[in-house]
Amino acid sequence: MILYNVTVKIDQLAHEEWLQWMQEVHIPNVMATGIFLEYRMGRLLGMDEPDGVTYAIQYYCTDLAAFELYQKYFAKQLQAEVNEKFRGKFVAFRTLLEIVDKGAFYAAN
């Protein structure tokens, strides 16, 4: 399994609009590509600064070949939409990880 992680620091003044847009438009568009099996979005704790709020959006796909299809056919357009809407209000970096051990979450009895 492959994890595609996008870490974003969004300007405080644009934060609420960006979060709503990500949840209602961008992430659904990414998932509609059919490439990713699931996603998670988290806010980094202890990382808020006066100039921005930091989030990590993690998308999971089956293998590197699937991710390469995303890169080839969808990534440029989806990233351009974010850049057009929030130009100058965020910084982002992307990482790609291979999941080597998928542990299970469980509750202790």
Task: Name its key features.
alpha+beta, 109 residues, 4-stranded antiparallel sheet
Helix and strand layout, with pairings?
Elements: E1 2-10, H1 15-31, E2 38-43, E3 53-61, H2 64-86, E4 90-98
Antiparallel strand pairs: 1-3, 1-4, 2-3
Helix pairs in contact: 1-2
Strands of the largest sheet, in order across it?
A: 2-3-1-4
First-last Cα distance: 30 Å
- Report the sheet with the most strands, covering strand number, pairing sense and barrel closure: 4 strands, antiparallel
Counting DSSP E segments of at least 2 residues, the number of strands comes to 4
Poorly predicted residue ranges: none
Mean pLDDT: 93
Q: Find the structural class using helix and strand composition.
A: alpha+beta
> Could you tell me the strand content as a percent range?
25-35%
User: How many helical elements?
Assistant: 2
The arrangement of helices and strands along the chain is: EHEEHE
Radius of gyration, taken over Cα atoms and rounded to an integer in Å? 15 Å
Based on Cα principal axes, name the global outline: globular
Helix share, percent: 25-40%
Provide a short characterization of the protein structure.
With 109 residues, the protein is of the alpha+beta class. Helices cover 37% and strands 30% of the residues. The two termini are 30 Å apart.
